[in-house]
Amino acid sequence: MKRYRLLIITAIVFIAFSCKKDSSLEVEDIPGLGGDTWTQTSIDKWIYDSLTKPFNIAVKYKWDPHEVSDNFILRDFVPPKEEVVIPLLTSIKKVWADPYITSKDSLFFKQYAPKFFTLFGSAIYNTSNGTKVLGIAEGGKKINLLEINTFKVKQMAGYTAAKDSFQAKEVFHTTHHEAAHILHQTVLYPLEFKRINVGMYTTNWVNDTDSTANQDGFITAYSKADPNEDFVEMVSMMLIEGKAGFEATLNKINKPSVIGTTPAQARDKLHQKEQIVVNYFKTVWNIDFYALQTRVRASVEFYIR
Amino acid sequence: MKNIIGFILGVIVFSACSKTNDRAFDQSPDQRVKAVLDKYQKQIEGAQYGWMATVETKLAGNYIFHFKFSNDNRVTMYSSFDSTASSTPKESSYRLKALQQVSLLFDTYSYIHLLSDPDPSVANGELGSGYGADFEYYFDDASTTDTIKLVGRKNGTHATLIRATQQEALAVQNKQLAGAYRFDNLNANILNYWKQFTIAGTTYEMDIYAINQMRDSVTISWKNGTALQAHTAGFKYNLNGGLNIVLNKPLVNGSATISEFKNVTFNTTTSQFTATINGTAITFAGAIKGINIDNNAPTAWRDAARNLRTFWAANWFHVNGVDDPHNLTSINVNGYTYYYLMYWPSFGGNYDLFGPAFLDPTQSFLDLLYGYAVFNSPISNILGTSGVATFVNGGTPGLTSPATPIPANSPFFNARAQLRIPQGYYLVRLDSETYDMVSANDAKAWITWYLQ
Question: Sheet of A142-145: strands edge to edge?
């Protein structure tokens, strides 16, 4: 109590004796405060009209290496070509936003969509192991898409399916993957999902290929990272590949995994997960997943074949 | 306790309001940053004809750029990097930004980013790092009204921007930077081993000295009587009038001085450069024969290996700008893989051997499976009198062990055919253990021999 009174006295003293000073620093006009500005171009206008205004989604395409995580900031990579930005974003909108809006409504989409995309022209290379980073997503809010200078869809000059469809699908896959994270972070999927592959989640997923992961009932190698990634990989892969593509992946499983999961068990696990995803979309979001899947796949095919 | 409070009060009372303005600058940091931003913005957009720039890379020397900055964050550029960049302007965006220093960022992709592109399939740079260049620069304080010095924020490479003249801007628009691109890639544009120009009765040979694509100097050689003279100098491009190549050290040959090649242009049809030296027009083009052919070189070359009872080895032929056009490296005979080509003087009683050495399947020793016998008796079969070696007379040698027939369609047949051209080869001694053997037919095919 005594200490408390002392504090009050000190405070009063400070108040009484602090004096009015000339403001020593002008703070009204800090260059760059509120973000970079530049003269708006038709690209900026397109982004504003097509994504920012309707959905509150911002897209940064001008160079800012600080948007990628610190691990990568010292690597050499480059900004995007301006001519790729609108075709890329148009296709993302058609493959991701439009099907959700048609299957549910735009209010839902505005509420749960990731709000920030950043674009880079090249991949980020891990020269030590020969891999490259094509997409990074953070916190269910931001999606970094890389190597977009070579992004091509069927409607662009010089597109060949064999060379370009993989990258196009990767972009769509990354977007759907991150978007699904927000859904399960808002309302969690049923816990029984985590029990399907209990004990098989591992940080060693990098040593798996998609096909060895399939043999244990994971849709991709990255699914093995943890149940949340597993869940969103299921959502994303099922949407991008479509029902037929999903079943085709399952049918390719033809031998037991190294830990002894049989092909039949692996397929069964994947079907259980599929069912949980479908029920989750229905009960939590009132979305008919198969209808959404049909729409997404149709849009993907519009762009790649 | 009371004393302490009293002391604190005293300190506060007597010290609180004694502020005077002791700032080092009249203006706040923000005002000063803004002033610098405005100054540079005004300066770069104020150059009516844009800026000629020398952009440095860590791995491939310098490139010439022309930048024209607008007042609305747009920049249009040309570059000497490749044929498109030197002939087609490209517009992209830039911005000035107050980072740790006031910086110029080229913030969407254009020609300058080719130098940093980490994907080798884009601009043939190094995987993951390109040519080690920059596209975010801060302004060096040494900048003046007409010269802006930039330092890369990432790789620390420099770029120097010099206010362009109308002439320079016109030269750029007339695609004169293509000449710099062509000269930078001299060996891809003139396919001959020898590249020469003649002025005032003297023929000069010139080549770019290049290690790892660092193209910073040229070597020019000429005959003074019987003595070979050589001059090595750094060079730079400028665009006063047309494209000029300026030597940093003039070549002096008696009363003749060469310090600059003016108005350099490349004719893609004839594969020749034209220019003027001190007002005299010259043509710089490929030549079939060098200025310093040594008639004894074929003998010296052959004897160097023969006297040591060893052989010459080479990776492959280089023909019309292509390494290994015969695809020798693809040869695989039952697990024996191609290693190098050999020329083995006096391998047999009356012949020299030309053939591939193979690495055995265990990759532990070299083996000879087949070859071509060049008959050396009489020796005039091979060593003529005019400094030319020919390998026309020959057949399949009687190799005893192992006697492998040459498989039909073997790439070796094509290499053998190349060796057997009737015009033969000049030998050029690089050092006692290295010779170039250059086709006397057109000087567009050669092979480099290393003494084993």
Answer: A58-60, A116-119, A142-145, A135-138
Q: b/e per residue, A121-155, with b = 16+ CB within 10 A?
A: bbbbbeeeeeebbbbbbeebebbbbbbbbbbbbbe
Q: Any idea how long chain A is?
A: 305
Checking A152-160 for CB contacts under 8 A at 24+ apart, the result is: A153/A87, A153/A91, A153/A303, A153/A304, A154/A302, A154/A303, A154/A304, A154/A305, A155/A87, A155/A303, A156/A87
Query: Residue B401 has what pLDDT?
Result: 46
Tell me the H-state helices in chain A.
2-17, 42-47, 53-55, 82-92, 98-103, 106-112, 161-186, 192-196, 210-214, 227-251, 263-285, 289-304
CA gap B212, A171 in Å, rounded: 36
Distance, CA of A96 to CA of A239 (rounded, Å)? 10
CB B280 within 8 A of CB B296: no
Res B303: pLDDT: 92
Q: A127 — contact with chain B (CB < 8 Å)? A: yes
Q: Is the peptide bond before A54 cis (omega within 30 degrees of 0)?
A: no
Helix (H) or strand (E) holding B62: strand B62-69
Identify from B27, B84, B96, B113 which residue to disrupt to test chain A contact, counting A C-beta atoms within 10 A and taking the largest count: B113
Q: For residues B137 and B123, what is the distance between their CA atoms, to the nearest angstrom?
A: 21
DSSP state of B64: E
- Given a cut of 60, is residue A208 above it in pLDDT? yes
Looking at chain B, which residue has its C-alpha nearest residue A27? Answer: B30
Q: What is the largest CA-CA distance in chain A?
A: 83
pLDDT of A16 strictly over 60: no
Report pLDDT for B148. Answer: 95
Give me the pLDDT at residue B4, please: 67
What is the CB neighbour count within 10 angstroms for residue B88? 10
Which residues 65-84 on chain A approach chain B with CB closer than 8 angstroms?
Answer: 74-82
For residues B354 and B141, what is the distance between their CA atoms, to the nearest angstrom?
63
Cis peptide before B378 (omega within 30 of 0): yes
Chain B CB within 8 Å of residue A108 CB: no
* Substitution target from A28, A122, A126, A164 for chain B, most B beta carbons within 10 A: A122
Burial environment of residue A109 by CB neighbours within 10 A (0 to 12, 13 to 18, 19 or more): buried
Give, for A140, the enclosing helix (H) or strand (E): none
Using alpha carbons only, how large is chain B's radius of gyration in Å? 31
pTM assigned to the model: 0.79
State how far the Cα of A293 lies from the Cα of B148, in Å rounded to an integer: 56
8 Å CB contact of A31 and B12: no
Using 50 as the pLDDT threshold, list the residues of chain B that sit under it.
212, 400-401
CB A299 within 8 A of CB A212: no
- Compute chain A's Rg from CA coordinates: 24
Give the number of C-alpha atoms closer than 13 A to the C-alpha of residue A103, restricted to the C-beta side. Answer: 23
Mean pLDDT score, A211-216: 94
The residue type found at A13 is: V
Q: For the residues A56-84, what does the mean pLDDT come to?
A: 92
Residues 36 through 95 of chain B touching chain A, CB cutoff 8 Å: 37, 72-74, 92-93, 95
Of A9, A74, A125, the CB nearest to B118: A125
Cα separation, B231 vs B248, whole angstroms: 11
* Distance separating alpha carbons of residues A275 and A269, to the nearest angstrom: 10
Q: Take residue A43 and report the two structure tokens written for it.
A: 């690209």
B417 reaches A (C-beta below 8 A): no
In this structure, what token pair is assigned to residue B350? 């009356």
Say how many C-beta atoms besides its own lie within 10 A of residue A186's C-beta.
12
